[in-house]
Amino acid sequence: MNSATDGSAFSGAVTVYITIDAGTQALGTVGSGVCTHEGNGYHTYRPSQEETNGELIAFTFIGSNAIPQTIQVTTVTAAQNSALQAATGTFAVDVNEIVSDALTEIGKLGLGQTPDSAVAQFCLGKLNRLLDLWNAKRRAVYADVFDTLTLTSALQPHTIGPNSATFTEAIRPVSIEAAQVIVDDQASIVTIRDAAWWATNTDKARTSERPTDLYYDPAWPNGNLYLWPVLDGAATLEIRTRVQLGAVLLTDTFWMPPGYREAITLTLAEQITAPMGAVLSQETKDQAHTARLTVFGVNDQRPPILSTAHMPGASRGFWDAEIGDYR
Predict the structure, then answer these.
(1) Across 6-11, average pLDDT
(2) 28 plus 61 within the same structural domain
(3) Both 277 and 153 in a single domain?
(4) Is 307 inside a domain boundary?
(5) What are the Cα distances from residue 83, in Å, to 32, 77, 78, 97, 105?
(6) Would you say 199 and 59 are in contact if contact means Cβ atoms under 8 Å apart?
């Protein structure tokens, strides 16, 4: 903002008016539209969720003896955001693409072609059996999922999972990666804490309208969400969780850490080779082996193998079919 008299940086009181999709201009609802002067004529305003519910939002900043300023913001709808993440997410994986890529690897599908329904469903069944097998192992397949949860006042803990939980999920999360709490349309980051922090917290019963910390206990079958301080009002919790993969559909899109797409695609190609009457090249077998070693091998903590002379031995251990190598 600049002064209307001499053009200098304006540091006086500024309020904002909001226009949604060329509708009626209205004073901002957060703090009666009063803005914060950050310095050098720069003023900020944090709109409520309702004030961003539109395709084109205009924020008009005014101050006594200041030159009015208007900025326009083109928003992205929830549907557009979902489509954008699915299309451009760094680790977004389309199940149809995995199936098509696996069939292409074994020479049963040409580039740019689409498998027929019966073949696609067969491959999907093999894929779900593969994911189920990997989920049963210590080195589980992970995916990131975003959830919005309506919290219950004074409830501790909130549970999440399949067994009559506060929040129903087919599989309870492995971990909580990030979280924020929303109270009166104002969001704030929640610090993720570990079991040691929770165990040494001597004031677990403290209450507040805005929790600041979260300890997640991944119990089975339901996980436990311990918010601190304990919520004593109305709030929404947004969390990004890491979960084991359940069954997927051909139309599903999910997110996985780096390397898993290659490992899953090439392992699926191996498993459908015989049923599809195909022959898998040695090069593709080697690539599948390397991909599994990359995503699973880093999780191994191999104990030293000693010979009878108590010197490091040359034994290669036992064959692990999951990673295609000796352990």
Answers:
(1) 92
(2) yes
(3) no
(4) no
(5) 35, 10, 9, 16, 27
(6) no
| Alpha-carbon gap, residue 286 to 292, rounded angstroms | 10
The pair of structure tokens assigned to 122 is 């067969």
* Residues 116, 295: Cα–Cα separation, whole Å: 31
Q: Looking at the structure, tell me whether residues 285 and 257 fall in a common domain.
A: yes
Do residues 93 and 253 touch, judged by C-beta distance below 8 A?
A: yes
- Same domain as 190, residue 269: no
184 and 229 both lie in a single domain: yes
Domain that includes residue 90, residue range:
82-139+247-301
Number of compact structural domains in the chain: 3
User: What does each C-alpha distance from 20 to 25, 175, 185 come to in angstroms?
Assistant: 8, 38, 17
Does 2 fall in a domain? no
Whole-structure pTM value = 0.47
Kind of pairing, strands 186-193 and 213-217? parallel
As given in the structure block, the two tokens for residue 169 are 């999920």
Are 100 and 224 in a shared domain? no
CA dihedral of 221, 226, 230, 235, whole degrees rounded to 10: -70
More confident residue, 252 or 300: 252
CA angle 248, 92, 257 (to 5 degrees): 90
189-245 tens-digit pLDDT:
999 999 999 999 999 999 999 999 999 999 988 999 999 999 999 999 999 887 776
Determine the pLDDT at residue 84.
45
Characterize the bridge pairing of strands 56-62 and 69-74. Answer: antiparallel
State the Cα–Cα distance between residues 214 and 192, nearest whole angstrom. 5
Describe the chain by its helix, strand, coil percentages, rounded to 5: 25, 30, 45
Rounded to 5 degrees, φ, ψ at 181 are -110, 140
Identify the pLDDT of residue 139. Answer: 62
